Amino acid sequence: MVRHLKLLIMLFVIFAFAKSSLATKEYPVPYPPFTPGIFPCMNCHSDLPRNKTKRVLKDMHQDIKVENHGDRWCYDCHDERNMDKLKLANGDQIKFEESYKLCGQCHGNILNDWKRGVHGKRTGSWNGEKQYLLCVHCHNPHNPPFKALKPDPAPIRPDATLLKPKYHNNKSH
């Protein structure tokens, strides 16, 4: 009985360690593509009052329109105490280089695909070090879906007579 208990405890410790090491794995990413002159945010926001009311921005950031993300506002993702950090749903602050964790809170299936190299771009060695592009390298974080594409016209169907089999009057066939 004691032997089984020791084995069970050992398996539990191994499983817990393996799970925690997978959960904390970091992914090497290049620096996010910020608009020039915008970052660090606290250069401007350190002296500004925090207005949590969702509204149309008029003085700065007029080009930012939060769309396709439901009823979201700046402070749902940006930390109001330190705008140079992002904020997870549990309140933890993360760096912009870890923004995949923020996106993954709602888009978990895509985050799993990204970690495995199925979604997004990943460079590096097959068995060695890899570098991942962040979600924001391809998707606008404030309006993430790709812009709608105008579909090309349908292909022109060949003349129906070309599709009919040709019959010979030759009896040998």
Secondary structure layout plus pairing:
Elements: H1 2-23, H2 42-45, H3 74-77, E1 86-87, E2 93-94, H4 99-104, H5 108-116, E3 122-124, E4 130-132, H6 160-163
Structural notes for this entry:
- By secondary structure, this protein is mostly helical.
- It has a domain of 119 residues.
- Helix content is 28%, strand content 6%.
- It has a two-stranded antiparallel sheet. Strands 3-4 form a two-stranded antiparallel sheet.
- The chain is extended, with a radius of gyration of 27 Å.
Structure summarized in a few sentences:
By secondary structure, the chain is mostly helical. The protein has a domain at 29-147.
**What is the CA-CA span between the terminal residues?**
84 Å
Sheet having the most strands: 2 strands, antiparallel
Averaged pLDDT, please?
Answer: 80
Radius of gyration from the alpha-carbon trace, in angstroms: 27 Å
Q: Tell me the series of helices and strands, N- to C-terminal.
A: HHHEEHHEEH
Tally the helices.
6
* Order of adjacent strands in the largest pleated sheet: 1-2
Overall morphology: extended
Derived structural class:
mainly alpha
Strand content: 5-15%
Low-confidence region ranges: 15-24
Number of strands: 4
Helix content: 25-40%
Core attributes:
28% helix; 173 residues; two-stranded antiparallel ribbon; two-stranded antiparallel sheet; 6 helices; extended; mainly alpha
